[in-house]
């Protein structure tokens, strides 16, 4: 694990890292903020389409509250990099920058696009080993494609993540154009194989998280109706008895200006679950 | 004045604008954050080398405190754009992205690089006309080259700016490689003409601001000794009796991670001067 950059901020450190990943068989980058003093827990942040390990840590304005709560954050890149797979770099919503936090099964992609394993196994172990965080002190959040990732990982492995939140998540990707395109490319055309990476379908299939899910969604988000479909999550939670707080925010859009407005509330939510 | 983008944040609006500038005879861009409710004053933010109207508004994390204090911020671009003057696009520290907040006198540049007039006359009038801020409710701050700009504009026209602060300012540009290169290119080789754009020289020549100046400088800033020379400002202030609070911050560098750590204190400082 190689430190690329380090910046003191809020008495702690904002840092950028690179390491050799066994899951993706590529180098992977991630960023962290480590507060000064005792670190009481870790939030994993999963970013959205076209993002890298840099967006959240530069634009969300999260360091102040993380510092106050004694929480670290770790923000992995959104896909493997440095490859040249078929169609990998042709579009914003597939391939590089668009890993969708799943384990691909299609030719070429199955060897590298294993972001589900990367986050839930490799990064999860790294947080414990390199940053000395106990396994029961790790939570997860994310935005858009990363909100999808946070919900899917949290519902699939609730024992690993103490609390789960999301901004503007793709809650029902099997019904959304982004999800359908990505799942076809990564998982093949048999839609039955897609459901284990779909938060709404996971809930309907019996998956639960013991904590309430926290979701914020802007009502001026241009992707709200066609891609994100927040209402499907609300309905599924009500139907199956999954606790959830879903906030629909008048006038807010899909940007980091929206995230920065409500990130403190998400950090407080995770801090409470982590007893931080 | 054309609105390019608008994002709700902290119940206010983060916005991007473009207008035809009489000072630069080009289009100029700027960004703003306007809090919800009564707007009690305006902070002008001047950015540093290579920056645009976007850096501060996306990376400083200032919107929350501005919202709490009822202050707007306006962040102009750092130079005219869309021109093709000799050597204008060859280096990071001269020409585009490096206007140095002066009125150029050299051939070609004198027709467009008039950032001093642009900020103190044109943008200053626009703030009053378009955003309905009273002339006695305007303060100024900036970073690096923009910290230089804030100090120079504030000391030159103290009646226009209620309070002046800076992060990592180039306090003595006539003695710094960045300043010497830029001033030669914009003002010619007669160094006597440079002094009116140099904060330390302005103080020594009798310019004062009625309020204390506020400066934050990281001690791990790679430009601290050779380009910024904060100590020269402290000494000049002591020598001439200009009140100043100069904070040297152990471990902090030149980045927006540093700015974001201390921006709330600067906003509070300006809010107090503006009775906001």
Structural descriptors:
homodimer, 276 residues, alpha/beta, Rossmann fold, six-stranded mixed sheet, three-stranded parallel sheet
Structural write-up:
- The structure is a homodimer.
- Chain A has about 280 residues and is an alpha/beta fold.
- Chain A has one domain: Alpha/Beta hydrolase fold, catalytic domain (Rossmann fold), CATH 3.40.50.
- In chain A, about 35% of the residues lie in helices and about 20% in strands.
- Chain A has a 6-stranded mixed β-sheet, sandwiched between helices. The first copy, chain A, has a 3-stranded parallel β-sheet with strand order 7-8-9, sandwiched between helices.
- The longest helix of chain A is centred in the C-terminal third of the chain and has 18 residues.
- The radius of gyration of chain A is 17 Å and the shape is globular.
- The two termini of chain A are about 25 Å apart.
- Chains A and B meet through strand 1 and helix 9 of A and strand 1 and helix 9 of B.
Task: Assess the beta-strand content of chain A as a share of residues.
Answer: 15-25%
Whole-angstrom Rg of chain A: 17 Å
Mean pLDDT of chain A: 98
How many strands in all of chain A?
Answer: 9
Q: Architecture of chain A in CATH?
A: 3-Layer(aba) Sandwich
CATH topology of chain A: Rossmann fold
Structural class of chain A: alpha/beta
Helix share bin of chain A = 25-40%
Work out the oligomeric state of the chains in this entry: homodimer
- Identify the CATH class of chain A: Alpha Beta
Tally of structural domains of chain A:
1
Specify the overall morphology of chain A.
Answer: globular
Most strands sheet of chain A? 6 strands, mixed
Order of helices and strands of chain A: EEEEHHEHEHEHHEHHEH
Q: Total helix count of chain A?
A: 9
- Model regions low in confidence, pLDDT < 50 over at least 5 residues of chain A: none
Strand order of the largest sheet of chain A: 1-2-3-5-4-6
């Amino acid at each position: 694990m190689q430190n690329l950059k380090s910046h003191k901020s809020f008495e702690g450190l904002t840092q950028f890292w690179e390491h050799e990943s066994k899951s993706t068989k590529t180098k992977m980058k991630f960023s962290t903020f480590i507060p000064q003093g005792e670190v009481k827990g870790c939030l994993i942040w999963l970013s959205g389409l076209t993002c890298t390990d840099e967006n959240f840590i530069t634009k969300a304005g999260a360091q102040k509250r993380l510092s106050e709560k004694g929480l670290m954050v770790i923000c992995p890149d959104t896909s493997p990099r440095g490859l040249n797979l078929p169609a990998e770099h042709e579009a914003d919503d597939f391939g590089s920058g668009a890993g969708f936090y799943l384990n691909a099964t299609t030719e070429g992609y199955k060897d590298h696009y294993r972001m589900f394993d990367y986050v839930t196994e490799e990064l999860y172990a790294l947080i414990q080993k390199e940053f000395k965080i106990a396994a029961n002190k790790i939570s997860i959040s994310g935005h858009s494609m990363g909100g999808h990732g946070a919900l899917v990982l949290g519902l699939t492995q609730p024992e690993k993540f103490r609390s789960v939140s999301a901004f503007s998540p793709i809650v029902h990707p099997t019904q959304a154009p982004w999800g359908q395109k990505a799942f076809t490319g990564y998982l093949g055309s048999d839609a039955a194989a897609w459901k284990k990476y779909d938060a709404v379908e996971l809930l309907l299939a019996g998956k639960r998280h013991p904590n309430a899910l926290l979701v914020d969604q802007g009502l001026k988000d241009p992707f709200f109706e066609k891609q994100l479909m927040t209402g499907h999550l609300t309905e599924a939670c009500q139907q199956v008895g999954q606790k959830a707080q879903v906030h629909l925010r008048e006038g807010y859009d899909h940007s980091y200006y929206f995230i920065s407005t409500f990130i403190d509330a998400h950090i407080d939510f995770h801090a409470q679950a982590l007893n931080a």
